[in-house]
Amino acid sequence: MVRSLSWGIPVASCDALLRSIRLANRTSYGEQGKRVHIVPEVGEAIAFYQTDHNEFRREFGLEGASVSDVAVDVHRPQASSRSVFFIELKGRHIDKALDQLKSTILAVQGCVKREAPCASLHAVIVSSGGIAPKMLAGPIARFPSVTRIAPTVRRTKNLDLRELIGKSAQLHCERSVEKIAKAPRRQGS
To answer: Could you tell me which of 101, 45, 96 has the C-alpha nearest to residue 71?
Structure first.
């Protein structure tokens, strides 16, 4: 049996893949004038992964697909909480950003949940362009029906992820554990 780590990829390829897409010692990521950042707190582990990378696409069967720019894993072991943010930095084409986030999340969602069942997943669009709320209402409303995640759209050039981390992550974990405990067991398990 092949053991798997982080995101459910077999260990043999996982370490190499994550090393190749990890943005070492980074607490921020930016492109084309837009940036996302976070200042680590004591006891917190933060990892930035460049998901818009050929190796990531190949590993998750997303060759030729548009994917999000970066994934940020914020892990607080002492608080038993983990938040994984899938982030797309965009000008004003929010509909395209939603498609990119959707393809990325759908490809890795199961793996993340297997490896870290208490992780709260977040879809984030950082937009520097004008956002027309009426035009986005439909695509944003449909996004959770496919991914089970409500997207966050922020019009800014510099987003502090700390604004998006809160007590909801711990509550999410407690509800997930409760749901697992209450789930009926299948015979033979």
So the answer is: 101
